[in-house]
Amino acid sequence: MKVSELGEFGLIERLAELLASQGSAAFSDRLVVGIGDDAAVWRENGSAVVATTDTLASGVHFLPDKTPWRDLGWKALAVNVSDIAAMGAVPEFALVTLALPPDTEVEAIDDLYRGLSEAGEAYGVVIAGGDIVRADQPVITVALCGRAGLDASNEPLVLRRGAAVAGDLLAVTGSLGGAAGGLRLLREGKHADTGALIERHLRPQPRALAGPAALAAGVRCAIDVSDGLLQDLGQICKASRAGAVVWRDKLPVEPALAELFGADEALRMAATGGEDYELLFAGTSEQLDALRKQIDVPLTVIGETVIDPACEARLLDENGKAIDLPVAGWDHLKGQS
After folding, report:
1. Which CATH number describes the domain made up of 161-316?
2. How far apart are CA 248 and CA 259, in angstroms?
3. Distance, CA of 160 to CA of 33 (rounded, Å)
4. 223 pLDDT band (50/70/90 cuts)?
5. Residue 34 CB neighbours (<10 A)
6. Over the stretch 38-85, which tens digit does the pLDDT of each residue have?
7. Residues 124, 8: Cα–Cα separation, whole Å
8. Phi/psi class of residue 130: alpha, beta or left (left: φ > 0; alpha: ψ in -120 to 50)?
């Protein structure tokens, strides 16, 4: 079997099974969240460490001839900040690994690190070290550690994908589809009057404050929208053993998309495009109302979790009829988007 047949998420499940019995009891007792969430979590000296890592590869995650190195540095750290935020934690220290062709200009790496530093300053992250290796194409990997508190039972206070229950409302920050629209414009070489969309793709703005605010409001379930809304909601469904419905007319579609690409394509981008790095929450109306008062970005209720043995996420039209889309989102190994 090829990994393309198994897919990214199937491979993750397989690896989790292979690693299920790893480690000594002393370490396994400290690990609270392992493979399968936005970040790993373990207890450490009266608090909890929250750790994640992401890789950006040339030609896969960024267009090398259309992505400024400074923006690439920003994005490499920002996408990891989004994972930490999705757990309700606060980011702290990062390690950076660079894989570079030998003929890479030194000035380009200067700009890359200027972008990393800008994102670090914006989100309170210190770049603490890393590694550099040779490769045919540029690849940047960031590993980011954050911190969360413990409750009275010594359990980490974090948001989890598996904490939704049937009847919860689903709410998302900001707007959706902008990053997918910006990527398409870059590919087509269109820049006039579309800078905001391109900025959404090149310099995502993770909702670093919304995650901790959600915890304070009593919300316990979240995920960041990185692989596409329906794809990521499907991860909540699977982990929580529930279904979900999203109402098409409630989706906060990026306003410029319909005018540029048409209503149907705007909907597809918003529902499946990915890389918006907004946060998707599941909680009660009271919890979401409390959260809305604490954050400075829009929070839109887009659907609800339901009892569904199939644990599927469905997009419904105004008449309650399911809308079929070609794919739910991005899978790195199957190449779907």
Report:
1. 3.90.650.10
2. 18
3. 9
4. very high
5. 15
6. 789 998 888 999 999 999 998 888 898 899 999 999 999 999 999 999
7. 31
8. left
Q: What is the rounded distance in angstroms from the CA atom of residue 254 to the CA atom of residue 201?
A: 13
- The CATH class, in words, for 38-148 is alpha beta
220 burial (CB, 10 Å; 0-12 / 13-18 / 19+) is: buried
CB distance 30 to 24 below 8 Å: no
* DSSP per-residue letters across 188-212: HT--TT-HHHHHHHHS----TTHHH
Euclidean distance between the first and the last CA atom of the chain, given in angstroms as a whole number: 22
320: Cβ–Cβ under 8 A, 6 or more apart, which residues? none
Which of 223, 211, 214 is CA-nearest to residue 286? 214
Task: Give the model's confidence band at 37: pLDDT under 50 very low, under 70 low, under 90 confident, else very high.
Answer: confident
- What are 186's strand-pairing partners? none
Q: At what angle do helices 178-188 and 263-272 cross, to 10 degrees?
A: 110
Contact call for residues 234 and 92 (beta carbons, < 8 A): no
Which phi and psi angles does 67 have, rounded to 5°?
Answer: -115, 110
Nearest alpha-carbon partner for 157 in 219, 77, 81: 219
Domain ranges of the chain: 1-36, 38-148, 161-316
Name the pTM for this structure: 0.89
List pLDDT tens digits, range 149-178: 999 888 899 999 999 999 999 999 999 999
Residue 335: predicted pLDDT = 52
| Rounded-to-integer distance, Cα 94 and Cα 25, Å | 28
Measured CA to CA, the distance from residue 95 to residue 56 in angstroms comes to 14
Task: Give me 102's structure tokens.
Answer: 């030998």
Measuring CA to CA, how many Å separate 160 from each of 153, 236, 237, 242?
Answer: 17, 9, 12, 14
